[in-house]
Amino acid sequence: MEMTQLSKPISQSSPFSIMVTGATGFIGSRLVSLLSSNGCTITGLSRQKLNNTENVKYVQVDVFDNDELTRSMQGVDVAYYLLHSMEGSKSEWQEFANREKIQAQNFLKSATKAGVTRIIYLGGLVNDSLELSPHMRSRRDVGDILRSGPIPVTELRASLIIGAQGGSYAMLRYLVERLPVMVCPSWVKSLAQPIAVDDVVHYLAECLCKPETMGQIFEIGGPDKITYEELMRIYS
Question: I need a labelling partner for 80 at 20 to 30 A (CA). Which of 107, 108, 169, 197 fits?
């Protein structure tokens, strides 16, 4: 992936100590690459044990273990919250929201104990006038949990993120394969604003350079608007 320069350079001498959760995921791996290519030193949280690179120290952490998570966050100033899971079966979809809630609560508790001064979170762009999907409802609830604590949160809200191996496409495939058209929930009528994954990652990185984004919510999306129902028809 081609790396781009940030509008305001961040060097290794930056006062920020940065942590990226979900560092090997769809968004996290790209964010780590962008930040490290711009001179940042990063702690990347992963469920797997990975070899460190020049600017990235990987830490294997169970996010459901508060003590382990708190230790990993000691000395961190800015933490990116990119923990997320997408599941396949109906029962798994019902259970994953509970896991997401516990993860967010654990993260906030550990970040507060460790003295983290800022959280940057990638959430979902939701339409509150329509019934929300389990996925989007969970994204909204996680943001609410993170903002309930004492740490300033910057939340970027995106709907459909375009890129290989993206979770939004996994959700779209799940819907097309399992939902007959006549029983589609009302939220499929809501508009999506597809956005390229590289743009999302750049926005996340730019927040680090802009302290005025602390405590704010921003909706991000591309110029085109299309309903999820139309996307399902295109996919099918």
Answer: 169
